[in-house]
Structures are given as structure tokens and as C-alpha cells.
Amino acid sequence: MATLRLAGQGHESGGKAELWARERGLTEGVEFIGYVAGLDVPAFLAGLTVLAHPSRSESMAMALVEAIRAGVPVVAGKNSGGVPWVLDEGQSGVLVDINSPTELAGGILSLLDNDAERNALRQRAFNDLSERFGIDKIVRLYEEQYETALRRASADNR
């Protein structure tokens, strides 16, 4: 049986989310972890099969980038700010309507139930992330910006 690990502020063991779930008999198979500090993120991610990221609004969604770098496939919101961009419009992760519990669960189960799909997505996402956000790409973008700034400054001084 899979375990649902709830991380993030408000999902601490003994916190409001756990108490709410306990009152409704919904704690079986659920682990309430709470906030995961920066240095603990790699170890946390290493224990995951899939990361579900049901945020309604994100700009860069670093949690998704960290998960993909750790080889964890992602299910996230198709209308959640920058999430579709980070996930290359669904090529690097499963995009769902996070306001639909059925759709969110379906996205998670589609990866849990299909090793081949999960592994293909893992590899595709990692390759895409490396190409779009890797150090070589970032250095090249910085160099282009500096060159543009120097050309403009040189032109302004003529």
C-alpha cells in the first residue's frame, strides 16, 4: 500500500490538518511531516515515488525543479501560475485541475500504476530540466545579457 506523505507548513504531526483528518477517519496510510528544511529536502525526495504539488498559485515552483532533479515525477496544477511553464506544458510532468480531487488522484494513480510511464516521464523531465535550466544554459544566458549591456553602453558612449 502506498503512503501519502503530507509536507509543508500546516501539515505537521499533531497539527490542524492531522486533527481534521483524524476526526474524519482519514489518517490510515497518511504521514504528516510538516515543513521540510532546505538541507532535508534531498532525503525527503529520495523517499518519494511521485510528488503531488496541489498549489493553486506558483511563480517558479522550485519544489518541482528539486523533485525533477531528484528523479521524482511530478503531478501539479495546469492553472497554477508558472507550473505549466516549468513542466513544459505537460511534457515534463502530469498537469491536472488541482481543484478536482478526482483529477488530482487520477494523475497520481496514473504514475503509480504504470512503471514504464513513470520512468519515461522521469527521464524526459530530467533531460528537459537539464536543457532548460542547467548550469551551461544559465551561464550562456548571463553572458548574452552582459554582452547586450556592454554593446548598449558602448553605443551610448559614442
Automatic annotation (TrEMBL):
Q: Which PANTHER family match?
A: GLYCOSYLTRANSFERASE
Q: Mind telling me which CDD domains this protein's record contains?
A: GT4_PimA-like (cd03801)
Name used for this protein in its record: Unannotated protein
GO MF annotations in UniProt = glycosyltransferase activity
> Which Gene3D superfamilies does the annotation name?
Glycogen Phosphorylase B
Q: Which SUPFAM superfamilies match?
A: UDP-Glycosyltransferase/glycogen phosphorylase
Positions of the Glycosyl transferase family domain: 4-126
Any Pfam family matching the protein: Glycos_transf_1
Higher taxonomy: unclassified sequences, metagenomes, ecological metagenomes
